[in-house]
Design brief:
Pfam families: SIS_2 (PF13580). This protein has seven helices and five strands. Helix 3 links the parallel strand 1 and strand 2. Helix 3 runs parallel beside helix 7.
Length: 203
């Protein structure tokens, strides 16, 4: 490989307004991802729930919208591939468009749970605001099926999703990117706690 002709940017060329913004931003992320005893307990309880799900022959079902849907897909892949806990997420466009067309957007995930989940499964519901109707309705459906439920939310402390799970995570931030990054970080920590290692080969 040829050496790059680009020179590193000198520190003094950093825009001071940008630096101030990013210093504040990283500080927000640090505060949001800080793990206290309650978060330790939640991550440990998540591990126990996932292992119990596997022992019961169930699967961990991740749901979310937008960025949270991307996180749901990432977590499902890593939990299944790296931690050997069967997992999936509802991200198929044909399923979404079919069920949303037939039952409405607010109810499509609830019907996906009704059609695909089974006894022994665990639902992980991710919503940054904690107010997404389709997520709340899916959790209600999971409860009627007696599934274990783990919730991840943020923004306002009184959001309705925050208290609906057996294990509940809430991020004290009003920044969507900080909330989503923290959700993924905590759930990745839970996956690695199942594996028992922080470093392992991709394959």
């Amino acid at each position: 490989m040829l050496p790059s002709s680009r020179q590193p940017m000198p520190a003094e060329s950093v825009d001071p307004d940008h630096k101030a913004f990013l210093d504040d931003y990283v500080g927000r992320l640090h505060r949001a991802t800080a793990i206290d005893d309650s978060i330790f307990a939640g991550i440990s309880a998540t591990r126990a729930t996932w292992l119990r799900t596997r022992e019961q022959g169930g699967r961990v079902v991740f749901i979310g919208n937008g960025g949270s849907a991307g996180i749901a897909s990432h977590l499902a892949i890593d939990l299944a591939k790296n931690a050997s806990v069967p997992a999936l997420c509802f991200s198929d466009a044909s399923m979404m468009s079919c069920l949303a067309n037939d039952y409405g957007f607010e109810d499509w995930i609830a019907h996906a749970v009704r059609l695909n989940a089974r006894a022994g499964d665990c639902l992980v519901a991710i919503s940054s605001s904690g107010r997404s109707k389709n997520i709340l309705n899916a959790v209600a459906q999971a409860r009627t099926m007696k599934l274990d439920v783990i919730t991840l939310s943020g923004m306002n402390a009184d959001n309705p999703l925050r208290n609906l799970g057996d294990v509940n995570f809430w991020v004290d931030s009003r920044s969507y990117n900080i909330v989503e990054t923290t959700h993924q970080f905590w759930m990745m920590a839970a996956i690695d706690l199942v594996i028992g290692r922080a470093e392992y080969p991709a394959s």
